[in-house]
Structure formats: structure tokens, C-alpha cells
Amino acid sequence: MEIDPHAMVWQLTVGQQQRLEILKAIYRGAKLFILDEPTAVLTPQEVNELFKMIRLLTSQGNTVIFISHKLNEVMEICDRMTVLRLGEVVGTVNAKETTKQDLAKMMVGKAVFFDYKKAAPQLEKQKTVLEIKNLECFNNRGLKALNQLNLEVKSGEILGIAGVDGNGQTELVEAITGLIKVTGGNIKINGKDVTNKKPLDILKRKVSHIPGDRLKYGVVLDMSLVENILLMNYFLPEFSKGEMLQLRYLKQYSKTLIEKYQVKTPSENELMRNLSGGNQQKVVLGRELERSPELLIAMQPARGLDIGATEFVQRNIIKERDNGTAVLLVSTELEEIYALSDRIAVMYEGEIMGIVTPDIPIDKIGLMMAGIRYKDLNSN
To answer: What residues pair up with 30 in beta bridges, in sequence order?
Structure first.
């Protein structure tokens, strides 16, 4: 598990911090291990190694509590599973006596299906919405985060960015949306150069952004739903005229968004902090999709959500793709990348190791995530 031992903890990504916690627990020689989403930042090969370690720990008489929403992993590593819903125990089952579908139904209260049917895009006929050439920038520690990165996203496709957290994905999204300075290369949206443009200038080019950390970058917890919905729309004439907000329109718009995106809230005036994580994410999703974007940047759109909310978010992203929107999907969840993407670009240390289709075996994706280029993979 690679991690810079000289970095300050605040400089580490969420994924790197999680790796640090795993290392600390192993180093201490603990007898009871509580692992909360421990595989979110690991390659498939690293997951296998972690599972070997878990099996070794339990064979030596240690106890492991494995908390995860990844049903495939739960079925593989756990002896028994206890399902929680709304803070209550739904039931406990033996792994050998249940199925993934049964677990999903217990978690949500109804049957859940993740088999998304979508027609293959005709990419040669689609226009290029996002074009990135030789992109370079630095992270908050002054280290190069992106190195000569090239990619493009066409209308009506989902390009998934796969990779272990901390390999430049955050900086890529921030560079596109104008949140950090680009030091080399250029970014074009619909043929117009937006390199180092202000975030507002980029938003006005019909770009929507679902940030990876909604609490830090997506919402203001002590503002109401109405105010959070206004955040990305305040400059539009239907929302404001001069310095005067169009409150009647804003209130009705908010009610419509809440209903359309199934946000559970007492009213549109409820504080954002009083909503569950899933409902907060639905507000962000609805706010961004209702702006009718030509480019949607979705980073970890289902992070921290239950299965029901995850399915809702993912289906809406696919719907946006079917409407002709170019979608850049950044996720450390390979299951999500495989389910939604039309093409998959794998990142490692700020570079693209290759761009492939979702029919590629997962072990090859894992090797690319570990730094082996696709062309070298095929030559061996």
C-alpha cells in the first residue's frame, strides 16, 4: 500500500488516509479489526492480498468486522452478514445460505437490479465535447499530479476514469472545472479553450459538476435546500434580475426538483444538514442535471450511498448520457465503472495507462491500475 510517510495527513486524499488507518491497525497487532469500507482505495490485486490477510487473521483466532456496501466482496470474505437499514438490524444470514440479490433486497426493502441496458454509442459519429492535450498540473504538496495527460469525451458517451485514489483523478477534475491552475497543455470544451478559466466561465459553457466530496464542495450544510439549489444558478435571469432574487420562481423550481429526484425532506426550506447523505446527493444530482449540461463531470457520484440511492443516481447518469450529454465518470468503484462506462481510461500517477472497453477482464484493469500500460500488457 503505497503512501508517502513524509506527507502531512491533511495533504492525503480520503483514500490515502484510509490506507494509513489499515496500516496502523496491522502495525498495532490488534485482536479485533473493524474495517469500514477498506477496499475502496485498492486495486483488485490488492483486494485479494487484503482478503488473504483477513483470512490469516481469523485463522489465528482474531475477530474481523467487515463493513461494506460491495456485495460481491461481502459474499466472498464474510462468514455471516448482518444487514442494517435506517439504524435497525434487518437480519443476520450465513454467507453460504444467501445470495447477492437477497442481501440487496434486505438492504433496500425491495428488489434492486443493476443490470443497466444501454445501446452502444456510435462514437465516430459524435462530436468531441471535452478534449484534453498534454495536461500538466501540481497537487497541494507541490508535486506533479498530472503528466502529459491526453483524453477526449464525446457526446452521448460515458468515459469512466478508473484508478486507485490519489493518482491524479482529483486534480484532473479540478483542472477541468477551473479549481486549480494548469501548468502545461490545454483543455477544450466544444472546441473552445478553457484552460485556466474561472469556474464560473466554465459553468457557463454548460458544464455540470458532481464533486467527489459533497460535504466539502457540493453543499453548504447550514443553508436550506432552496439556497443550495440556487448556488449554481444564481446568475441565470430566471433566478435573479439585477440584485433581486426571483423567490417565487426559485421556490417552485426547488419543489419540482425535490419531487423529480425523490428527495425526502419536510420542505424545500429544510437545512441541508438535516438530510441523509443519499438525499443530499440527490439534491446535488438534481441541481446539476437540471442545468441541461453538455458535459457532466461526476466524481464518486455514489460514494457513501445505500444501494437504493446508488441505483437511482446511476440510472439518472445513464439517462443523461442517452440524452446526448458527454459524461466523465471518475470512480474508485470498479463495479460502477464497468456498469456505466462505454470506455474506460485507467490512471496511474497522473498518466493514462490505456483506454479500453468494459469487456476487458478485471485483472487486466488491476494491472493497469498498478502502473502497467495497456500496450505493454498485450505484448507480454
So the answer is: none
Domain 9-108 sits in CATH at 3.40.50.300
Global pTM reads: 0.80
pLDDT digits (tens, 9 = 90+) for 212-257: 988 889 999 999 999 999 999 998 899 998 889 999 999 999 999 9
**Structural domain 123-379, CATH architecture:** 3-Layer(aba) Sandwich (3.40)
How does pLDDT run across 275-319, given as a tens digit for each residue? 988 899 999 999 999 999 999 999 999 887 777 788 889 999 999
SS3 72: helix
The answer to whether the beta carbons of residues 62 and 29 sit under 8 Å apart is: no
What is the C-alpha radius of gyration for the chain, rounded to an integer number of angstroms?
A: 21
Domains in the chain: boundaries? 9-108, 123-379
Which residue shows C-alpha cell 465516430? 124
Kindly tell me the burial class for residue 11, based on how many C-beta atoms sit within 10 Å of its own C-beta (0-12, 13-18, 19 or more): middle
